Known about the structure:
Blueprint (H helix, E strand, L loop, with lengths): L8 E2 L2 E2 L1 H16 L7 H8 L2 H5 L6 H38 L3 E5 L6 E3 L6 E2 L4 E6 L3 E2 L4 E3 L4 E12 L2 E8 L2 E9 L4 E12 L4 E6 L5 E3 L6 E9 L1
Amino acid sequence: RFLRTSRWRRSGSFWPEKRKRTKRRLNRFRRNPFKAPTTTEVENEEIPAQQQASSPQFCLEDVHAALRELTATVTQQKIEVERQRTEIDKLKQQRQAEQVAFSASLLAEGEATVGPFPTHTTLIFKYVLTNVGSAYNPNTGIFTAPVKGLYHFEFHVGVHATNTAAVLVKNTNHIFAAYELQSDGFGTASQSASLLLEAGDTVFVRLWIQSKAFDNQNHHTTFSGSLLFSL
């Protein structure tokens, strides 16, 4: 049934690849005429050498291209993660800046009357009960707005057997004043206001000229404020 390789000619043309396959089959048949060729052997015979060379195991360029694409994707993801981390830090800082509240009284302990003074004088509330955001300065008595927003303030000035007057000041502008005349015993002058502030605006309480402020361990003279919402 097997023909000699010299007979594989058609119209004067010679088929070298077919000759090789036929020769391999003859050699196998001579070694073991009763053994059928395996599937792998048949497939290898049917695949030309140039097609084997182009199979995936030899396509290193495709592997390198895939690695470059993967590297570019990972790099882009790192950039995105860093951007999100920066945005989160910014939101945290903004959140912390929006948490503002303070409350302070004139004296931490003991009993004292402040004034009278020959000019309007800023009251310094030294005993700080609350100072979330550290916007109130107990050394100067001045509150400085950390962010733009709507703030609410109130103050109370204690008086003992005399008169007192005080005013809430925004930057250099007098906002609301409070007055109390007490001929005997204790009294309190109080006032409050909601103010729209820009970041950096200041708010404080001024004791009116020739007025007095009384305070003791019960904290009659106080100054408080908080951020209602930012804008």
